[in-house]
Structure formats: structure tokens, C-alpha cells
Amino acid sequence: MTLEQLGVGETGIVKEFTDLEMSVKLMEMGCLPGESIRVSRIAPLGDPIAIHVSGYQLSLRKFEASTIILQ
Amino acid sequence: MKADIRVALVGNPNTGKSTLFNALTGLNQKIGNFPGVTVDKKIGYSQLPDGRRAEIIDLPGTYSLYPKSKDESIVFSVLAEKNTELTPDLVVVIIDATNLKRNLLLYTQVADLKIPVIIALNMMDQAKKAKIEIDVELLSQRLGVPIVPVSARKLEGIEQLKNIISYANKFALQQDSIDVKAIAPQIIASISSEFKTDNPYVALQLAHQHETLKFLTPAQSDRIEELEKEYSFHSQKAQASETIARYNYINDVLYDTVHTPVTAHDESISNKIDKILTHRVFGFIIFMSVLLFMFQSIFAWSAYPMSLIEDLFVWIEGGLRHVLPGGPLADLLIDGVVAGLSGVMVFIPQIAILFAFISILEDTGYMSRVTFMMDKIMRKVGLNGKSVVPLIGGFACAVPSIMSTRTIENWKDRMITIMVTPLVACSARLPVYTLLISLVVPHKNVWWIFNLQGLALTGMYVLSLLSAVIVAYVMKFVLKARERGYFIMELPVYRMPRWNNVLFSMYERSKTFVLQAGKVIIAVSVILWVLSSYGPGDRFKKIEQTYSQPKYTKTMTPDSLARVISTEKLENSYAGVLGHTIEPVIKPLGFDWKIGIALITSFAAREVFVGTMATIYSVDGDADRIDSVQDKMRNAKNPNTGGPVFTLGVAFSLMMFYAFAMQCASTVAVVYRETKDWRWPAAQFAYMTVLAYGAAFLAYHLLK
User: Fold this and answer.
1) Is the preceding peptide bond at A48 cis, omega within 30 degrees of 0?
2) Can you give the pLDDT at residue B497?
3) Contact (CB, 8 A) for B453 and B438
4) Tally of CA atoms within 13 A in the half-sphere of A11 that contains its CB
5) Distance (Å, whole) CA B52 – CA B296
6) Which DSSP category does B422 fall into?
7) Do A58 and B491 touch (CB under 8 A)?
8) B237 in the Ramachandran plot: left (φ > 0), alpha (ψ -120 to 50) or beta?
9) Contact B243 A25 (CB under 8 A)
10) What is the DSSP letter of A7?
11) Which ranges in B534-646 belong to alpha helices (H)?
12) What domains can you pick out in chain B, each with its CATH number?
């Protein structure tokens, strides 16, 4: 399951990434394996999404979310 | 100014870094450029308690030393380059206490460069509110650096921070964070020995960033490239393992020094606000209302200060004319330099108000929500959620807006934004539009509430946005992407705007505008003045001789004679000759040589149009009296048809030309500054001219 598939309010734990380049950027922003992620909201037009991770809010596009595999 | 110690301020975005910078330095700061790049360099001075003076450099906010945008790339090079006039003796890393974990990533990277470090722990009050408990003492011991709790907004802890800065060590005493050498042992060893650096992390960063670092020679960069191949160094893999190692270290450090409750208090308030502000329906309605309010205010609030500035310059001109002896030098000073200056100064209120709004929207965190909401639409047309800010800013002035595209990390998105921003109807087009619309569009209402003139003006604004979007869409297919686009962006917690920062931003941006655009506009005004005051050969002499004959001096009043002479002189000046030369080219658009002169002069700046029209139609008094310019233009007769020059077709043709043409020397200059390649402004100039010509041609022939 990937982060993209989570609905608003649902939580998942990061397992791994499918894209190295994206993973470097995501990890810098605190999306690390083992970290819990909650989807806070989805933008009015369905993309991007906002997630709650390591104590703050981060927005990312659905495509980027699809590179994050959850446990 | 000499300083005793140089301090660099480093931190994540949204941590209150610029507030702390302002708190430390007060008004005692200046903005320049980092050598070789167009990144704003903010330097300020602070008096330390021991009497020494500290020079404080505010480095761009970044989440890590690995840059994602142009601005961020400056951070590592300033910190790592030895013995320059910017090399810091000390780094203050500012950390948001409500988000320690992510903030400490940058700290550990900076600490590993082994420059003496101090941590300023900001937003302690908010951390307390959110029930985050931090054992500052223990954390400081763990990291081996002094930690000063501050609240930059409330100016708390600033004196303490200055104290600690003055006691700071000359040597780096911080604990090692991770085993850097283990990440890529061979390449670090080779670079360390070949490039004479004893710091393994600097060596590793050189391996990562050698292509963009200005302080490496091409030969050095090539050598590092060779080494990378030799040891099969993979930059992204190394970065990934470094980041994981750092977060492991940070988790260990924070394990018993920080206690965070499950949900942060502030975040939940923010969540409630977000539910409304990014709501499916209300979100867009609110955004539109904010925009509408912004434009209303930009025009409404600036009207009075703008007329004050105009009056001031009229007064200065009058005073100078009175004091100075007549002659070409006085004319140059008054009609060239002072007139040019007033053309710049008059835009200060609009620019200041626009930047007040932008800085409030950014400060509160609303701008990133707008970006969040708009990203999908903007992406469809080849732009990026972050392009919204420059495009909106374009309604005031393209120059600062193009400067604000630096926040767009993706090269292609940024270039397209730069290329289309000048299409947005900026405030300099407003006087041109209002003048022409009031000439040809009747002042009456349709459908009860809509004023025809207002509708025409709104139409011009809508057209500008539409054209920007369409051109962006076309460019999406023309430009090749250099890197993949991504949109990983922090949505900061909503906060009250810091009014001090708003004022600073108004002041700074206005100053930058006056200094940068001012130079160009004054230079061009002077050139224009020369071109329109002198003519080839002895044409001017002949005109004077002709009109000194009794048949003119006897029959005409001195005033009207002077007017006729100056009109004749203008036609025979270099500018007039130029106007005649381009007449065949612009005839299909319905323009005559007089409008041709205005077109040429307007390539310096659009607002010059009104002034030139005033001169050409020889209005006495100053160009700001739009009414009189209007009357003269209305009465101007076309010698061929006997009808008025400014018909509906000509006026709309002119407006189309002004809507699309790149008539702004400052924008050309700033596009060059931002792209560092003449081909960009050249391409932009070319495509806009073609669009302008085509649109004007269509408008003239459809409405003729």
C-alpha cells in the first residue's frame, strides 16, 4: 500500500520508497522509514495532499505520495 | 564598516530567522548580492555587550545543506569557502522549538563543517503552549554547543544571545554527530588529500556539489568528477544514507531531552483554519476575495501618496527652473533627470503596498495554502503552484515578481513563470489604459451596474491573465525539462503577521526598486530627452528662423507660437525622425509617426507614453494633467481623413500593443539578471513583440 491510497484522517507508517531521488528529498523533510504519517487533507482539486509527519504539516503531490510505501 | 566578528545566521524556512536577524541588527542592515549570483545578501551589524561589533549575515532559509533552489545553494558555499570576506567566524543556527527533529538535521550538517556554532532555540513560548518539554541544559550538553532560548517576535533572549555570541569560542567544540567517513570512505580520503581539507564532511559535500560551487575551478570540478567515477560514488545513495544516519543520531539525542505530546495544540487550531481556507468551495471564494481586496487597496490607497509624490516633483521642477539659469544643462536636469526620477518614485506607493500584502500573506502562512490549492490548475498549463505569487505580483510590477520566482525550485517551471510574468497587466499599463479608454469608450452604464469603461479595463486585465496562461501552456511543450518537477513543501502553522517584518519588506523592496529600476529609467529618460531636444543637421535653426519672421510673430501670441515651434522641433528631432522611419511598419496598426515616437520612448517604460503624448500634442504644463492630454488627443485630427486620430480601432490597437509588448527596460534587465543569459530576455522580447503586433493588427482591422 502507498501513501497515495490513504484517505483523509488515516494513518500509515513509512516502510520504504520506490524512487531514490524523491526519497532523498522526502527523508530530508522528515518522512523516514518507521515514521508515522497521517493524511490531514486533500487539496480542493484532488491534488496535492497535505500530511502530518514528525510534528508538522507537509504538502506533496499524489504522484510523490505514490512513491512512499507504507507498512 | 569594520566588524570584529562575523556571524552567519542559518536555519530552516519559517523558523523566524529574518525576525531574529531584524531583532539583532535593527535598521542597521544592507542588502547586496552574493558574488557571482543573484541571491540577496542581507548583512547587518550588531553591537555586542563587550563593545565589539558583530557583522551578521542572513543566509537563505534551507532544510539542508543540499540545495533545492538557487537561493539555498549559497549556504554551503558561504560556510565552506575559507578566507573570503564572507567566511563566518561563528554560525548561529536558529531552530524552531516546536519542530526540533527536522530542524536539527540542518544543525548536524552545519556542525560537521566544524565552524563554531550556537543554537538559538526560537518559539519556546509556542513549544510550551503545545506542551513540548525540552531539557535545554541536557540537550546543550549532548550536542556540545551553547543553546539560547529566544522568542524573536517578543524580542526575548536577544541580549542573552548577543552575550553568548561575544563569549563564543574560536574553536568548534561541538560533538561529532555521525561517522561521516563511513558514508563514502575512499572519495572522502582522496578529496581531503588532494584539496587540502582536513574536514571529511566538507570533502563529502565537495563530492556532492562540485558542479555548482563557484569557488572550484573547472579543472578541480573535473577532477572530482573523475574521482566519483573511480570510486563509483552515487550522490543520491550517499545522501540517503547520510540523512538516515543523521536522523538516527537526532532520535538518540532527543530521546530523553524532549517530550512531545501526541497532538500539538497549535497544529489543531491551524487545522480548523485550514478546513475553511482550503475548503473545496470557500477556499477559492476566499482567495478571489483576498485578491480583489488587494487590487482595490493597491489602487485606492496608493492614489493619494502618488499624487503627493507627483506634486512634490512638480514643485521641485518649478523650483529648479526658478533657481537655475536657463539653457540646455538645466533642461537636461529638469526634463531628463528629474522627470525620469519622478517616473520611478511615483510607483513607490504601489510597490510598497503590494509587498506589504505579499509579506502578510507569506508571514501568516496563507500563501503556501494558495500554492497548495492552485498547484493542480497551474501544473496543467506548465506552471507550478508557486507561480501564483509572481503572477499576482505581476499586476503591480513584473520586476520584483520576477525576482520572487527564485522560490520555484524546478528550472523549467521557473523559466516559464519568468517568461510569462511580464504579460500580466502591471501598474505601468494602467495610465495608458485609462487614458485611451476614456478617449474612446463612452462613460455610461450597461445592465444597470456595469460601467462600460470599467468593463473595458477589466477586460484588459482578464486578457492579460489569459494570455499569460496560454503562452505558458505553449512553452510547456517548447522547453525541455532539466530535472523532474516536485512539490514537497512545508505548510507552516498559521501565525499573526509580524508588522515589523511587513514594514521592513515594504522599505527594502521599494529601495531595491528605486535603485535598480531607477538607474535604467533615468538613463533612458536622459537619452530620450537628448533625442527629442536635438535634431540632425540645421533643421532646428531653420525652424527658428522661419518662425522669427514677422508674419508669425505678429499674428500669433507668444504662447501659441512657442507651442507651434516645439511641435515642429519635435517632428524634426532625432526622435521625430525615428518616428517617421518606423511609420511604414506601424501604419498597418493604425499608428502615425507621433504614436511611433511614443512607442519608441515607451520601450524604456510604458508609463512614458502619457508624458510623450503630452509633449507631442504640445500641452502646456506638466504631463500629469491627464485631462489636458486627453483633450488634445481627442482634438487631434488625422490629416488624411480629416477625422480624429484616436478612433476606437486606433485606441484598442494601441492598448493591445501595450498589453503584449515588452516595453520595460527594467524587466529586460531583471530577466537577464535572473537567467544570466541574454537569450532569455531576447526570446521574451521577440515573442512579445510578435504577439503585440499581431494583436494590435487584429484589433485595428476588426474595429476600424
Assistant:
1) yes
2) 87
3) yes
4) 6
5) 48
6) G
7) yes
8) alpha
9) no
10) P
11) 539-547, 550-553, 558-572, 574-586, 593-602, 608-616, 626-635
12) 1-262 (3.40.50.300), 501-703 (no CATH)
- Residues within 8 A of A (CB atoms), B 485-504 only: 486-493
* Angstroms from A53 CA to nearest CA on chain B: 10
State phi, psi for B65 to the nearest 5 degrees.
-75, -10
Shortest CA distance to B648 belongs to which of B692, B587, B561, B590?
A: B590
pLDDT tens for residues B658-668? 999 998 887 88
Of A33, A45, A64, the CB nearest to B488: A64
> What is this structure's pTM?
0.80
Which stretches does DSSP call E strand in B157-221?
none
Q: Hey, what long-range contacts does B523-527 have (CB within 8 A, 24 or more apart)?
A: B523/B340, B524/B340, B524/B604, B524/B605, B524/B665, B525/B336, B525/B337, B525/B339, B525/B340, B525/B343, B525/B604, B525/B608, B526/B332, B526/B336, B526/B337, B526/B340
How far is the C-alpha of B282 from the C-alpha of B286, rounded, in Å? 6
- Degrees, nearest 5: CA angle B568-B574-B578: 100
Long-range contacts of B194-197 (CB under 8 A, 24+ apart): B194/B223, B194/B227, B195/B220
* pLDDT, tens only, B613-636: 766 665 444 444 444 567 777 777
Instruction: Give CA–CA dist A32/A21, Å, rounded.
Output: 14
Sequence-ordered list of residues with C-beta below 8 angstroms from that of B495, at least 6 positions apart, any chain? B363, B364, B365
Cβ contact B486–A48 (<8 Å): no
Determine, for residues A55 and B280 on separate chains, whether the beta-carbon distance falls below 8 Å.
Answer: no
Name the CATH superfamily for A3-70: Ferrous iron transport protein A (FeoA) (2.30.30.90)
Q: Say how far apart CA B4 and CA A71 lie, in whole Å.
A: 54
Residue B697 · residue B652 · CB < 8 Å: no
Instruction: Write the ipTM.
Output: 0.94
Q: How far apart are CA B348 and CA B495, in angstroms?
A: 28
For the record, the C-alpha cell of B52 comes out as 565589539
**Strand pairing class (B5-11; B53-58):** parallel
Rg (CA), chain A: 11
Q: Which residues of chain B have pLDDT under 70?
A: 1-2, 31-39, 262-267, 295, 299, 343, 449, 516-517, 520-521, 614-629
Query: Domain map of chain A by residue range?
Result: 3-70
